[in-house]
Design a protein that fits this description.
Elements lengths: L2 H15 L10 E4 L7 E6 L8 H4 L2 H8 L3 E6 L3 H5 L3 H15 L4 E7 L1 H12 L6 E5 L6 H10 L17 H11 L8 E7 L5 H10 L5 E4 L5 H13 L5
Parallel strand pairs: 2-3, 2-4, 4-5, 5-6, 6-7
Antiparallel strand pairs: 1-3
Helix pairs in contact: 3-10
Amino acid sequence: MATGRIVVFLCVTAFFSCIPRTVAPLRTIVYEQAPRGDGLLVYLPGMGDSITVLQGNGLIDSIRAYAPSFDVVAADVHYGYYADRTLHERVTVDIISPALARGYRRIWFLGNSMGGVGSQIYAWKHPGVIEGMILLGPYTTSKGPVREIMKAGGLAAWSMPAQVKEKDWERPLWQWLKGCANGGPGCPRIYIAYGVKDKLAPGIRILEAALPKGRVVALDGGHDWPVWKEGLMRLLRAGVLQ
């Protein structure tokens, strides 16, 4: 085998060996209120985040205080579920369907970074299921679509090309977000908290500009938990989950 091919093989092997293995059912931690209400907040973590990160930041107690009708389920939806495209199946089978069967009627998603785009994609693919979502420093899409939308003058002025590649999920997602920004049918309410120095800020600002006023908390800071914690606290105090 040529040296170049060996290098490529080793790089590909190393990449795939680093992808966490998926399991069924999902590993979850449930934080229940007493007495239980009719709301469920589903947490999807960012890349490398533990499902205990909310507890570690004192946010479970804050959610209990400001959203007493909501239980929380933290789901170990790591990158492996995105890579093998089982996110939808596992979240539906292991969390959403059982929750609806147990009587939960208000389903919200909370996601930071990678979990933010996971929340968006799930809501897009399952219209009418999610009442709202809180996105903390969310990944939106790659730079290509972001530049297209910025060049068009914003999401309201942009239109998805008539033809997109079969594997292109990014532009269809933006098209859905465009329709949902002001409350399209089957769309969740969208709230965002992010740091203005976040590396993902260009894409976040596109969505921020399209959303109604009062839906976004922009803070000084970057792509990290101190910003997201403060942003989430502000949204909770504002009664987003009341």
